[in-house]
Specification:
- This protein has helices at residues 3-14, 37-52, 98-111, 149-154, 165-169, 179-188, 204-216, 220-232, 288-299, 312-318, 325-328, 393-404; strands at 58-65, 68-76, 92-93, 133-134, 140-141, 253-255, 261-263, 285-286, 303-304, 307-308, 335-338, 342-345, 359-363, 367-372, 377-382.
- The protein is an alpha+beta fold.
- It folds into 2 domains: 3-13 and 23-103 and 218-404, 3-Layer(aba) Sandwich (Beta-lactamase), CATH 3.40.710; 114-216, Up-down Bundle (Methane Monooxygenase Hydroxylase, Chain G, domain 1).
- Helix 1 (3-14) packs parallel to helix 8, helix 2 (37-52) runs antiparallel to helix 12 and helix 3 (98-111) packs parallel to helix 7.
- The longest helix is centred in the first third of the chain and has 16 residues, at 37-52.
Length: 407
Amino acid sequence: MTRALLAAAFAAALNVSAGSAQVDLPRARPEEVELASAPLAGIADAVNGVIRNGGISGAVVGVARDGRIAYLESFGVQDATTRAPMTDRSLFRVYSMTKAVTAVAAMMLQEEGRFRLTDPASMYIPALADVVVLQPDGSTRAPARPITVEDLFLHTSGFSHRTSPEYREAHVRARDMTLDQMIGNMVRVPLRFDPGSQYLYSESSTVLGRLVEIWSGRPLDEFFEERIFGPLGMSETSFWVEPERVERLATVHSPSEGGSLRAVEMEEIPFTVRAPLLEGAVGLVSTVPDFLRFAEMLANGGELGGVRILRASTVDAMTRNGLSAAIMSNRRGGTGWALANVSVLVDPAPNSGARAGEYRWDGSAGTEFWVDPVSGTTLVTMWQSQPANPDQLRQRITAAVREAIQP
């Protein structure tokens, strides 16, 4: 079934209008979903202040609870030169928020019995049996144990990040490669440590995306579309921006010496081109209303609008800290990491207003989603900037949402 038909069918099932391509969650006044209006109203001051100070050109912020949108506002412009206004239909490169979608896809297949978390990943990608570990003296050795599928979820594999010096020097990643080519390049660079012994945020999710293809027999983009985006009505989320949607793609900006914003391109092959590389780590483009649907599905235990993506027990397991006590002893900030490819709050700081169990993740161009599973509240913020979080804007918005949550 095509994207348009899937979105239309889902809209009909929810009895909402399909007058536009995007299918939004129902709207509610904040108090109707037990959120206080005043703290949410303060979000505008925070965002507009950063716009005035030249940190970002514009933003979209959405807050939902119990399957309804309580706050959805757009600020500023998509592009500092054209002055095209930012809207809730603006498209954003979500970069590492893609990881959570890949994790959901993989766990759907785990529910179907396609793999076990304890399986060596080399059962499915034989080249992973050839990895070696870098030692302090520069020599290499065989790893103490194989990389497991769980290591790929938890970033305990020993792989490095795409921006690391060793991966840049080896030209591990480019968007004109295939997934198999990139993984082959990764295998040729030594692991940073023995699998399972440490946490290092890495390209593990890209390997996991390749495993989704192997387990399902489908290309990653097709699996996402058929099993997640279509059923959830996420009609604006994809690996590239077609010509008819380009005018809605927000520009990435960085501050210039004169205080104005300048456009920057983060990729040699932009997201307006259908690149060969389908990355489970960083590849997607989306909108705030679309990603609110994804976040609300997680907050609601794997189901949205009568469409079940995952079992509630699976979502519960995916959003708990999965790092060992030994690894956690070396982490700061009271956060762990979960199978859902999200940072999960284990030990909130006193008087922070935060609650244990909150989970979130962000993207390197200025996007983030956050879920409080206790209250069922979700937050999605999107702008496009380098640096990604000027004036700690993400934290300020999250604090306002925490304040708005009523017991």
